[in-house]
Each structure stands twice: as structure tokens, then as C-alpha cells.
Amino acid sequence: MAYLLMFVTLLHLITLAMLFIATMEKSWWVWDGMENSDLWYDCRYDNDTGTWLCASSKETEWLQSVQVLMVLSVVFSSVSFLVFLGQLFTMSKGGLFYFTGLCQVFAGLTAFAAALIYTLHNQEILQDSRKLTEGHFGYCFMLAWVCVPLLLISGVMYIHLRKKE
């Protein structure tokens, strides 16, 4: 049981880090490696100065919904981890981690909704950007999709996990 506890804790920390990276990094849509777009900025690489020049993304309703859902996912997962640590030290023997599991499941569902909206509405989200056929989804978008099953699995594991002493 101690190995399961360590595995679930490690899985939780990994998914939390992946969620944070997917939300904050600048690679949800990429064009030829010299230009990319994320949830917050549109960036171009300047060869003369060797730096990224970024401007705020044009706010659309779809982009705002993806932003809110990804931030909510990070918040749910963070709250879930903090509650888990609290329950680990205060819960009586034999107790279940229901609230922790439900927070993880909600984090997974909000990340799923955000990634799905970005998948289906990327043309509306990137409307003023370059031609979409020349670009592709970036690694942060992929991380968001990878987080969805990991969050749901860890949520179910938390729900079935019992405290032993």
C-alpha cells in the first residue's frame, strides 16, 4: 500500500507540473518554429536580436474559455494535492480520499473541455494569425491532452485509496 501511495503522489505531482507547463508555456500552435501562439501570447522569433517578440493574443470567447478552463484545471489539481496532504495527516484510519479524488476528476474534465474546445475551434481562436494549414499543434497542446487521462486515472485511484496505519 505504501508503494501505491507513493505512486499516486508522484503521478499527481507530475500531472500538476505538466498542467502548469501546458497552461503557461508558449506552444499551443506552431508555424515553422519561428512563430507560435499560446493561450496568452502570439510570438515571433527575431533573428536579428535572437529573442522572441510577443504580443497579447486577440481575445476571443473561445480563447477565454480555454484560458479559464486550463487555469481551473491547475487550481483543482493544486487544491486536490493540498487536501490530500491534509487528509493524509488528519484523517482517521480506514478513511477514503473522496474529496481529493473528486478534485482530480474535475481537473481532468476541465482540461478535457479546454483541449477539446481548442481542437474544435482553433480557426476562430487563431483568426488573425497566419494560415493554419502551414502550422500544427504544439507540445503544450499535446501535454494538455496527455494530462486528461492521467488526471482521471489518478482521481479514480484517490477515490479507491484507503488510509492505513
From TrEMBL:
Function recorded in the entry: Probably involved in cell proliferation and cell-cell interactions.
KW Transmembrane (keyword) present: yes
Annotated Pfam families: PMP22_Claudin
Compartment(s) where it occurs, according to its Swiss-Prot or TrEMBL record: Membrane
Keyword set includes Cell division: no
UniProt-listed PROSITE patterns: PMP22_1
Transmembrane segments: 66-89, 96-121, 141-161
One cellular component (GO) term of this entry: plasma membrane
Major subcellular site: membrane
Alphabetic keyword roster: Glycoprotein, Membrane, Signal, Transmembrane, Transmembrane helix
Similarity-based family: Belongs to the PMP-22/EMP/MP20 family.
Protein name (record): Epithelial membrane protein 3
Signal sequence interval, chain numbering: 1-17
Membrane-topology annotation of the record: Multi-pass membrane protein
